[in-house]
Design brief:
The chain contains 4 helices and 2 strands, in the order αββααα. The protein is mainly alpha-helical. It has 2 domains: about 70 residues, no CATH class; about 25 residues, no CATH class. The chain has a two-stranded antiparallel ribbon.
């Protein structure tokens, strides 16, 4: 599969979900990479470990610059409509997030 095929597929799925943009930014395959890095940083994963996980060069600061980008912080959660995360499951996820931020 070509790398651009993944991006195209993610964009098609985002359009079908009426979520082509989140916080004014187009959903792309890099959205997932950026969000994973941001989540890891939020729970204290070191830059070295995030570089390894993101396949960035050791010693690079990429994980702390363009890829540290909390999209959706404080805004509507697009996953709240998804049955897996919405309803009672959404409350459990919110409680778990609140417990880790204390």
């Amino acid at each position: 599969m070509r790398p651009s095929s993944i991006n195209e597929r993610i964009q098609v799925l985002a359009q079908r979900a009426n979520e082509s943009y989140i916080d004014g930014r187009k959903v792309t395959s890099h959205s997932f990479r950026r969000c994973a890095n941001t989540d890891m940083k939020a729970v204290g994963v070191s830059l070295t470990e995030r570089n390894l996980a993101g396949r960035w060069v050791a010693g690079s600061t990429t994980a702390d610059t363009p890829y540290d980008n909390p999209i959706g912080a404080g805004s509507r959660d697009p996953l709240s409509e998804v049955p897996l995360y919405g309803g009672p499951a959404h409350a459990a996820v919110a409680a778990a997030r609140a417990a880790t931020s204390e």
